[in-house]
Each structure stands twice: as structure tokens, then as C-alpha cells.
Structure to design on (175 residues):
């Protein structure tokens, strides 16, 4: 009986830890888009995979209302700590944004890391750094009452200058 109770307790603790574990994603701002209104787009810095041939695979998500959401005191403190230790968001360097925008951008990244805003879009990209090309491997878009998804890889596309894809390519391929 004690063994069964101990096993049940251990099982419950493990399930609770798995169920409540936070994601290890580290979302970094790379641009904005218009998907049923303005959305802020982020890539997962911790989840990107560098492959042979100078190719990268990375998940992205675009969130609505990030600039309307009030950061918690903990988020403000985390953002301030990052900035005090010299953190500069990658988009500031690659997209020519003003340094004065850093606190807002770091706050947006903290909000994205929470994971409590339903994305308008999630895209899993493959980027060919040497060729300056990109393609979608998986896509999930929600706009108003419409929904669409595909796990069929798109054709490779050339990356146009001054676009979100260009920002993503500059950020990820420079390393």
C-alpha cells in the first residue's frame, strides 16, 4: 500500500512539473506585419538550428497587442537588468532602429516569452544564408475568423531588402 501511494505521489509530481514547465524559448523581435491588424514578429533564438551548408531553421511567431499589454514589475526589472548588462535587441542593430527604442523592444520580448498571447501567425522557416533565400516549412495563420495552416514546404524565395525576411536573415546569418 505504501509503495502504491509513493508511486502515485511521484507520478503526480512528475506530471505537474511537466504540465507546468515553462518553455525554454527566447523570443527576439525581428519585425512587424499586418495580419488582421499590426502584429509584432519574433524568432526563437534558443530553438534555431544551424545546419550544414550555411542553412538555418527557426520558428517565428507574430503577436497582436504586444504594445498594448502592460508589463509586470518583474518583466520591467528583467528588461532593465538585461539592458544594464549591455543587451541590445538584434533588430536595433540590423534594422537601423533608434537606441531609445531598446527599453520598449526588450519589454516586448519579455511579453513574448510569457506565451500568454495567442499568435496571429507561426511560421517555421528555412533560411539559406549564402544564397539569401528563404522558404516556409510550416505555417499557421489566424486572421479575424479565418484560419489556415500548411506543413508543405514552399518554394525557395529571394529575400527582398528592407523586409522582415531581410531583418531575420541579417540577424541570423551574421553569426
Amino acid at each position: 500500500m505504501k509503495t502504491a501511494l509513493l508511486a502515485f505521489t511521484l507520478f503526480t509530481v512528475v506530471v505537474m512539473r511537466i504540465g507546468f514547465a515553462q518553455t525554454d524559448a527566447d523570443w527576439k523581435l525581428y519585425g512587424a506585419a499586418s495580419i488582421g491588424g499590426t502584429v509584432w514578429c519574433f524568432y526563437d533564438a534558443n530553438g534555431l538550428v544551424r545546419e550544414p551548408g550555411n542553412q538555418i531553421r527557426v520558428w517565428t511567431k507574430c503577436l497582436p497587442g504586444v504594445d498594448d499589454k502592460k508589463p509586470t514589475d518583474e518583466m520591467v526589472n528583467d528588461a532593465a537588468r538585461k539592458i544594464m548588462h549591455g543587451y541590445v535587441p538584434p533588430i536595433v542593430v540590423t534594422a537601423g532602429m533608434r537606441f531609445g527604442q531598446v527599453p520598449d523592444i526588450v519589454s516586448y520580448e519579455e511579453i513574448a516569452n510569457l506565451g500568454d498571447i495567442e499568435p496571429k501567425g507561426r511560421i517555421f522557416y528555412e533560411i539559406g544564408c549564402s544564397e539569401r533565400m528563404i522558404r516556409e516549412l510550416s505555417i499557421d495563420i489566424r486572421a479575424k475568423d479565418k484560419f489556415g495552416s500548411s506543413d508543405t514546404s514552399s518554394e525557395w524565395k529571394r529575400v527582398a531588402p528592407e523586409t522582415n525576411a531581410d531583418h531575420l536573415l541579417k540577424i541570423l546569418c551574421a553569426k
